[in-house]
């Protein structure tokens, strides 16, 4: 306890990026378990449905955060991704694609930059993000070197760097398999039925069961030896 | 000419951050003079007036860009700055403040991240930003080390890095005095009357003449030995 004493005698503060998916939910649970007072940030970047946003609200309430902010960021003008532009999401995983069509240009850079701004105002010196290098499906901004580079940038970009109190980017899932993510969250009391992972979930948040994200999630439950609580369509 | 051949046989592409102020306008003029096909990006981040946006439109048309995109990004939820929150802009420059109240948390990080996303989709390997280390007034994200760190991040965050075609962040004003900025732009044919620098410009884009930005600009014209064409209120 050093710098955080000035604003909170109880716990250091952390900004946690929360999409409402399995990984960010587990990350929030880890941050809470490590004793951080958590400020959850959900960035709506032109997704085609609201199911994830509602999942983020459920998760923030269930896990317990000091504050949950949602900010709209229209990335559709950038184009170039099936998640933000008018390109169909592939119905089945393409195993050999180097970078998948669902990759959103610079997404994690943009979301971490927004989290950094809030962290600076909160005097939080921790940012949590649920990126995963093993199951990252070819996204360049989920690699350990990217996280290290952003941490370096963050300490040059802000008062934290100028005033000598370093800020750390925490990516607790970075080296976990999807099964280890599920085991970790389950151990911390997460009910994954409240999370939405599917790229093509319906209005009630029910998953398609076929897309890249659904297949990774399904395999994760199987490998973890934990019953798949995901709500699928048509069941 | 290497990678840009695939999308443009004529000129390499650059994304140029354009606020409509003196520095970003000069930066755009430099990028054009260096032969880039320019894609101007204006980020509206909750400024309290539209004068800068209109200036950006005038500048983009006058200097000549392939495309000018404007994207809204509400940073008011972050708070912590006189430019985005409900804090009065200081009427006179405070010379000894370490980081001024008009500093917007993580602003350049966020704007460069958005530019990076567009650059990736355009297959542009150059991003221009008009930051200035000498007249930077204490903003941490205007320092040379910040620009170098963002370039490193950019090459890890995107396909450019994965596919081995590096992206460069160009900050041509980085080591210029304000006088040198004005001399450079004037030599390249910029009419600075169309730009807006003032933190408190009126609806017609006329400057207050007293704020931090106005005082730096006024001194710049004087030091450059060029007549101040700024439109001030009450004149």
Low-confidence runs of chain A: 1-8, 93-97
Main interface by residue count: A-B, 43 and 43 residues
Give the class of chain A from helix and strand content and strand pairing: alpha/beta
Task: Average the pLDDT over all residues of chain A and give the rounded result.
Answer: 84
Largest sheet entry of chain A: 5 strands, parallel
Spatial order of strands in the largest sheet of chain A: 3-2-1-4-5
Number of domains of chain A: 1
- Could you please say which CATH topology of chain A applies here? Rossmann fold
Helix content of chain A: 25-40%
Count of β-strands of chain A: 5
Broad CATH class of chain A: Alpha Beta
* Proportion of residues in β-strands of chain A: 5-15%
Provide the CATH superfamily of chain A: HUPs
Write the layout of secondary structure elements.
2 copies of one chain form a homodimer.
Chain A (H helix, E strand, L loop, with lengths): L12 E5 L4 H12 L3 E8 L6 H13 L3 E6 L34 H16 L3 E3 L15 H14 L1 H4 L5 E3 L7 H10 L24 H13 L11
Provide structural commentary.
- 2 copies of one chain form a homodimer.
- Chain A is of the alpha/beta class.
- Chain A has a single domain, classed as Rossmann fold (3-Layer(aba) Sandwich), CATH 3.40.50.620.
- Helix content of chain A is 35%, strand content 11%.
- Chain A contains 7 helices and 5 strands.
- Chain A has helices spanning 22-33, 51-63, 107-122, 144-157, 159-162, 178-187, 212-224; strands at 13-17, 37-44, 67-72, 126-128, 168-170.
- Chain A has a 5-stranded parallel β-sheet with strand order 3-2-1-4-5, sandwiched between helices.
- Mean pLDDT of chain A is 84; it is low at 1-8 and 93-97.
């Amino acid at each position: 306890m050093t710098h955080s004493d000035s604003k909170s005698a109880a716990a250091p503060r952390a900004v946690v990026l929360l999409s409402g998916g399995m990984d960010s939910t587990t990350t929030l649970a880890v941050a809470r378990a490590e004793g951080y007072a958590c400020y959850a940030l959900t960035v709506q970047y032109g997704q085609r449905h609201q199911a994830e946003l509602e999942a983020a609200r459920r998760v923030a309430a269930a896990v317990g955060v000091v504050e949950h902010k949602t900010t709209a960021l229209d990335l559709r003008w950038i184009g170039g991704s099936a998640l933000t532009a008018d390109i169909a999401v592939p119905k089945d995983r393409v195993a050999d694609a180097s970078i998948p069509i669902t990759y959103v240009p610079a997404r994690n850079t943009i979301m971490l930059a927004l989290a950094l701004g809030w962290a600076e105002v909160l005097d939080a010196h921790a940012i949590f993000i649920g990126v995963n290098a093993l199951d990252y499906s070819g996204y360049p901004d989920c690699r350990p070197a990217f996280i290290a580079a952003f941490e370096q940038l963050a300490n040059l970009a802000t008062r934290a760097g100028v005033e000598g109190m370093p800020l750390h980017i925490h990516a607790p899932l970075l080296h976990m398999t999807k099964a280890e993510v599920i085991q970790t969250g389950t151990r911390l009391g997460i009910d994954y039925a409240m999370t939405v992972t599917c790229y093509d979930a319906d209005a009630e948040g029910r998953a398609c069961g076929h897309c890249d994200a659904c297949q990774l999630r399904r395999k994760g439950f199987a490998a973890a030896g934990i019953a798949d609580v995901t709500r699928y369509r048509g069941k």
